[in-house]
Amino acid sequence: MSAADAASRPPEGLARAKTPAVAYISWVALALMTTASVASLRPAPTMAIYGLAAVFLYLVPAVVFLLPTSLVAAELASGWKGGVYNWVATGISKPMGFLAVWCQFAMTIFYYPTLLGFVASTLAYVINPELASSGVWTALVIVVCYWSGVFISSRGTKGVAGLAGAGLIIGTLIPGALLVILGAVYLGQGNPSAAPMTAANFFPQWAGLASLVLIVNNFLSYSGMEMNAVHVSALRKPGKEYPRAIFLAMGLVLLIFILPALAISWIVPAEQLSLTAGVMQAFDAVLAVFNWQWLTPIIGLALVAASLAGMLTWLAGPSKGLLLISRQEGYLPPFLQKLNKNGVQQNLLVTQGLITTVIALGYALIPNVSSAYWIFSVITTQVYLIMYLLMFVAAVRLRRSHPDHPRGYRAPMLIGLCGVGFAASLAALLVGFIPPSQFGGGNPWIYFVIVAGGALGLGLLIPWLFYRFRKPSWKLPDASTESEEVAKS
Question: What number of other Cβ atoms are within 10 A of residue 169's Cβ?
């Protein structure tokens, strides 16, 4: 065929050129992606309080929550597009789908104060370690960092997601490995461990339900697997390769969570640990042993950079999902659905920021920064767990009501997995209302009222009010067109 003949047939050639090739990824790549999105050094001080028992307290939620969540979400993602809203809306009802996507968004309202509380305490070690216990300093850093993130996100900045991979290496893997290696050398030099490391200490001491409350924080550490499940369709053999990816990711995540927590427990006594500044406490202590304290501010900046990169990466994500559904179904007032010239849901981000600012004041008003950090972490976890409860129920109903619906992956023993995951999530949600034994001396009823008001008010009452008082005018006639534009932005 001549060049002229070939040129005379553009439609067929164009059609072939536009036919997208399937972009497969390896199961190892998926495992690393999952590890990058889940693993972090931030929760290490929380579990370091338990010493060797941290291993047990990380393994339990990995088996009863992380594994069921991963496998169940993979089946849902491979069969129904549209994320958790479509899964729950199809499996249960549209109102419950709205509740699920709302909880996925609302948990970030308390998540960012906890994340930035960690940033504030870490940054304090770069400037003045005494600031780590200052609630005013913590509140100031939260407000400044969050609004800076809103400003950056509202400008539609591209390429921010690439910061997450760099953040994993710079702010998690390198500092974590350094902490573990120096901790091991510290013990190897004959220094005693601050926490006993005998087999008898593998299980946490039982002092009633309050002694196990800190395990609730691990559910938040493992959350987000439903986000990674969307990649199951990119595997060549999902049935075989996805379980491999999940078990490899679980192993890597457990190593990243457990080893730094143990290293901290070797170096810093439990009674001296700050839940927000514990990582820097450990670094400061072990570096002092080797006369390497000049590295402390460098490590602090690396941790801060990784946390801020993670915040920017996730800042607009959950709110975008809520926006798309609300514009299609009319769940939010038009003011909250408004987009700026860059196609970003700026009004929704600003409203979220105002609430975050009020929550940040809690650090200034609650005397103990660690107590404020823990309370906000519990509220974050409980709101997110509501979404998981709905997801497990929807998965069972979809398996029964749509047994022949095509799925790229079918979770083995789905009913049992959902039962275990639902029971574990419900237990974690209920236990979260109990003050932990490590925070004695306070009024348990005040703790209960704060946690219940935050979790149930934000997770159930507010979405109910939006749904109850919604108006037909809230459903925008051009929602589909603008939604596509937002999705492309």
Answer: 13
